[in-house]
């Protein structure tokens, strides 16, 4: 059965759920231990996820001897696939004198920095997957009356290569992917997963001594920072559309300041107090640019043109033709500064730099230079 019949609706689309690497690890462990206890190959295994959904997953590459057993479950991202979709997560189990001992093998990362789910030195197998694995082991042991220990090694043969496409190298997880998942289920377009990843990266930096965060919404911001002579992109944290969440997390983690560097396409929305910049929540780019242009003294005919523009660069062309691009950007950055400070209630320093792919840097808050200085130190 698996997850094939499990769906959610996102933006009026029926989308298939998947299962996490943590679910794969727990299911593979349950199947391998069952094989070892029964000395018989298992083709499918049922497992209950923390979300309360029972899955029946296919077992691949089963191997069995008198002393140990191993098998794999294939990661399924549903309709929200990432680089781990389709990879095999293996569990190798053997019997021991006592305890349920879980470790990572080939392709599972190892933690090297504080602030992550696991302590430094541990395999990057998070708490919920570890609990799922332990519960699966206990279930099989109770069923077969076994009262000694079990050693489990979770591996992902493709993990080291796949990890290069994840945040793991930035987070201080080396040698492979993480075994993760809090619900056991992959939900399409999971905003929580993206926010959680951002927050983990911020926490790692905070515990390493950083008091100020450099935040970029995405690749444009990262490229702009990397080309800048006065800011380093080494520690830039991507927040995607979740600017409000980045600000909230900065306060909660005890930071002293945040510098937000982004393309005008997203940053103009912040000038209107929009803190989730995804277009499905709000757009208003042209409305905000038009109002800023009005305050800057641009005439009606040009305002109509700005309002009718398809992109922010098109609107900037009109604004530039009036000779008032600086005045307009000054109005906009003032509103950005206001809304950033309002979101954090003045508890930390906030600043911003706004650029355009065509026009380069457009404006920055008055304290941006000071924040750059703090980031350098």
- The number of strands is 18
Query: Strand count, sense and closure of the main sheet?
Result: 5 strands, mixed
**Strand order, largest beta sheet:** 6-7-8-11-9
Q: Between the first and last Cα atoms, what is the distance in angstroms?
A: 55 Å
What's this, in brief?
This protein has 377 residues and is of the alpha/beta class.
Could you outline the blueprint of secondary structure elements for this entry?
Layout: E1 7-10, E2 13-16, E3 18-19, H1 21-38, E4 44-48, E5 54-58, E6 60-64, E7 68-74, E8 88-96, E9 100-104, E10 110-111, H2 127-144, E11 149-155, H3 159-162, H4 168-171, E12 173-174, E13 185-186, H5 191-207, E14 212-216, H6 219-227, E15 237-238, H7 243-252, E16 257-263, H8 264-270, H9 285-295, H10 300-307, H11 312-321, H12 325-344, E17 349-356, E18 360-364, H13 368-376
Parallel strand pairs: 9-11, 14-15, 14-16, 16-17
Antiparallel strand pairs: 1-2, 3-13, 4-5, 6-7, 7-8, 8-11, 10-12, 17-18
Helix pairs in contact: 1-2, 5-7, 9-10, 9-12, 10-11
């Amino acid at each position: 059965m698996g997850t094939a019949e499990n769906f959610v609706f996102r933006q009026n689309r029926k989308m298939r759920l998947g299962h996490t690497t943590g679910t794969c690890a727990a299911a593979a462990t349950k199947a391998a231990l069952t094989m070892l206890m029964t000395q018989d190959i298992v083709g499918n295994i049922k497992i209950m996820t923390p979300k309360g959904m029972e899955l029946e997953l296919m077992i691949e590459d089963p191997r069995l001897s008198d002393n140990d057993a191993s098998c794999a479950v294939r990661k399924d991202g549903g309709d929200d696939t990432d680089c781990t979709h389709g990879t095999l997560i293996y569990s190798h189990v053997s019997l021991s004198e006592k305890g349920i001992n879980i470790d990572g093998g080939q392709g599972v990362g190892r933690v090297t920095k504080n602030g992550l789910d696991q302590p430094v030195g541990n395999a990057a197998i998070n708490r919920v997957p570890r609990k799922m694995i332990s519960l699966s082991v206990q279930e099989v042991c109770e069923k077969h009356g076994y009262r000694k220990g079990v050693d489990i090694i979770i591996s992902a043969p493709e993990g080291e290569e796949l990890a290069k496409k994840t945040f793991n190298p930035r987070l201080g997880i080396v040698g492979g992917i993480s075994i993760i998942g809090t619900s056991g289920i992959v939900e399409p377009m999971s905003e929580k997963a993206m926010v959680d990843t951002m927050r983990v990266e911020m926490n790692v930096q905070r515990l390493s001594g950083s008091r100020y965060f450099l935040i970029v919404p995405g690749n444009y911001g990262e490229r702009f920072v990397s080309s800048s002579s006065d800011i380093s992109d080494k520690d830039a944290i991507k927040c995607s559309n979740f600017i409000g969440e980045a600000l909230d997390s900065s306060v909660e983690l005890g930071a002293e300041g945040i510098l937000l560097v982004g393309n005008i396409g997203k940053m103009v929305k912040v000038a209107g107090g929009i803190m989730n910049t995804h277009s499905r929540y709000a757009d208003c780019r042209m409305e905000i640019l038009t109002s800023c242009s009005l305050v800057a003294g641009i005439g009606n005919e040009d305002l109509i043109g700005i309002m009718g523009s398809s992109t922010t660069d098109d609107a900037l062309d009109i604004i530039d033709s009036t000779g008032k691009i600086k005045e307009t950007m000054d109005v906009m950055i003032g509103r950005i500064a206001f809304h950033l400070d309002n979101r954090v209630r003045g508890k930390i320093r906030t600043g911003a730099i706004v650029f355009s792919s065509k026009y380069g840097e457009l404006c920055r808050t008055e304290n941006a230079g000071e924040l750059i200085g703090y980031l350098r130190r």
